[in-house]
Amino acid sequence: MNKRNKITIKILIILFLTLFITLPSIIKVNASSYGYDFWNNVIPSAEGLSYKETYFSDDIKDLNGATLQGSDAINFEYLTDLATYGNYIYILDSKELTDTVVQTAGVRDGYYWPELVGKGISTIYVLNQEFQKVEAINEFLITDEVKKKMQDYYGFYYEPYQLTSSNLSTSDFRYFYKDEKEEYNYTLNANELEILVSEFIYATYTYNTETQSGYYTYNDNLLEITINNEKVPSSMWKWECTPTINGDSVEYNYKIVLDESLKHSEDVSVNVTISTPNKRSKAPYFAYSKDSSKAAIRLDNAKGITVTEKYMYIADTNNARIVRYDLENRIVDGVYLTPEDNMFYQVSSGLDYATGTQG
User: Fold this and answer.
1) What is the rounded distance in angstroms from the CA atom of residue 350 to the CA atom of residue 359?
2) Helices marked H in 186-259 — which ranges?
3) How big is the chain by its Cα radius of gyration, in Å?
4) Is 34's pLDDT higher than 80?
5) pLDDT at 346 over 70
6) What is the mean pLDDT of residues 176-180?
7) Could you identify which of 114, 158, 293, 327 might form a hypothetical disulfide with 162, taking C-beta atoms 3.0 to 4.6 angstroms apart as the criterion?
8) Are 181 and 273 in contact (CB under 8 A)?
9) For residue 58, what are the contacts with CB-CB under 8 A and spacing of at least 6?
10) CA dihedral of residues 39, 44, 45, 47 (deg, nearest 10)
11) pTM tops 0.70
């Protein structure tokens, strides 16, 4: 080999090495195309992202490039899936072993709310392409329509302020109430509209303080009133509770107050049929931490995530449902509970694919 060929080979080797070193910084990985690590190495899964030899969660910075501190820091535990769309990376951590506070203890709106803490309250981390934290989501506000759908499907009519830790920990979903019902018969005196119901069997909760016992009022889906064998619409009666403080004790007077149009000139027979609480089933929703008058859902060991232009779909595995989260309005506007739910494209629907898969 002559001297000129040797020089040529050396030049080619130098060029190859230079290209090899600089190529990763030249090629930019688009989040809409790949999952990747901090050094732009393509990775196939969330597990690849959490592999300690590849990536560390404490390398993630805030949007200003500063180190995340305290509760803002990211600590990956058990990543189950990731999705990329546009300029964002969505990472699903099931949090199987982490204790998460779902509800803080305290008196709000006249009720004592117990602390609720559970494991497996999954978190979705949203990062940008610079691997900076945009947000962490472990609570999803729901619409009233979604709440009503879950109430009717599960037969679960407790309001968020009535929940206890057993509603968070149990794995039983449905049949919250027994099939059998209890009946009470009263006589409504002429020209009166109030029925005292103090002997009813109520589900207890703590009222005002952690030790002071009180009572739930039943949702009208669980109680039926008939007068002279005719059912009274729920819009024509309401519950009233008057607490009377006697020293250190509190007495409660419960009554059903009927609409003025139901006043009779003579005594009438009133029948009250009520479903009896049987056990604490799993709550499909909880109070929204930013506004306790609204409801939100918490994921339980979620295992899958898909992102489209408008929605984020989450396989909420231990809750046996798929959640549809509106990214723009930041609210769950759909929940998939059975294969019959008209939430996704259905071949049998007769709709074309584009119409059936909007969003």
Assistant:
1) 18
2) none
3) 29
4) no
5) no
6) 52
7) 158
8) yes
9) 67, 68, 73, 74, 75
10) -70
11) no
